[in-house]
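Q: Second attempt. The first request was missing the SMILES, so the protein and zinc ion are both included now.
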Amino acid sequence: MNQNIAQSEKQRVAVYCRVSTVLPSQRLSAISQQNHGRNTVLNAPTRELAGIYADSGVSGVSRNGRISLQRMVSDCKAGKIDLVLTKSVSRLARNTTDCLELARTLLTFGVHIVFEKENIRTGSADGELMLSILACFAEEESRSISENLKWGIRKRFASGSYQPSVAPFGYRKSDGRLAIEPEEAAVVRSIFEGLINGTPPHVIAAGLNESRVATRRGAAWSYTQIRSIVNNPVYMGDLLCQKTYTDERFCQRLNRGMLDRYYHENHHEPIVDRKTFALAASVFEQIPCHARTGHPLCGRVVCAVCGCPMFRRQSKGAHTFVCASARRHSAYCHSKPERESTIRAAFLTLLNKLAFSQQYTQGGILNGYIAHIAAQEIGKGDAAAIAAAQERSRMERAALAAEAMAGHNTAQYHDRCRALLAGEERLRREADRLHCCTEQAERLRAFVETWRITGDVADFPDEAFPNLVSQVRLVSGSSATFCFACGLTLTEDITNRATKKEKTGDQKA
Ligand SMILES: [Zn+2]
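A: Got both inputs this time. The predicted holo structure:
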């Protein structure tokens, strides 16, 4: 290939090399690549070494994260390099697009690349064609290596010999196996104990932050971390493998049943016993979502378009509520994320309206509603009718039981009895609902009567909200329907808010 390089003055040559893992044997490979490159350059009298750029421990799949490569590209741009020398196509890139893109970028700076193994020089007539063919092969090779690695890991998943590459909080890796780390294990135990004793997860997290216990990454504790500890069977000594997987584009994804999952009992020493783990998990399940996170809206907002729950997420510094199915794919639901501040403002407007009608008008919306419930309950004798029906059912059951004991109608006894019990259960629920509605409506009226009309979102009643509202049905960008615990359902328009905000935003810009 030297015949291509005929120059009067010395050519500044850069050597690029890369090894994909940080194994000691591969480190040797890096050194030998570097030495080889250096010798090739220094042996030619027309060349001088512009620098050796080496990346190690980085997979060749993607160009991102290869610091030396990026440095080399910027040096080429700065005109410090005339030619790049590299061992093979697979050393430079393992992805066709990346490789061609890089070669073309360097060509625009007037820099050619020489691939020693394949004897290709970019910029020459057949260089580009050869390169695209070879880069294609290189990508295939990279895929098959990663497939082989995956196959090996899955074999270890299935046989139970797999050990997590990173030990979870509470454990350390010792001789390749999980071993208990006493200080962290004490924290894990205190989390389980706290939950069983009824401490909400967000309070446990705040307590840990107050006593300056750091997470593994040195970050602050939050509800999410407590949840992941309570849900991780690793703490009772079991191991669940293949919770996530890497897709064909090399992105990590949650395994929602696309691949087999492997579960191994008694895989390592547990931090809590099985009874404690199960108890904490069931307690956690029973805590309503807003009480787990300490956030009044969490677990209450539902997408009115598809009926799925909406989750609170942070994006660009603001909190939004996102439809769970829309987030998975826009084909499932076309709902757009809605700002939390919009929902809060809508509820404040609603409260202000209720308070205004209650405090400044004769009658009042809630008075009317309570009178309506009361009319249903007392005026039309519903509650009395329910009580009478309950009594009749009980008497019929007693009569049936007496007959059955005397040896009559035994065949029909069970069927008839079951039907009567089901009917009684229905009546009981009906009576409860009537009673509950009145009580809840009275509570809402008491709250509204003391509500001071406000336009400030900071005045949102964080504490009272979960007791007053059972659900918020949201049509993003259009309306928010608040379902009160007393059965009252009121809708507030949110289209104006969005346009108003856009308008003020435009004015600022
Ligand atoms: Zn939806």
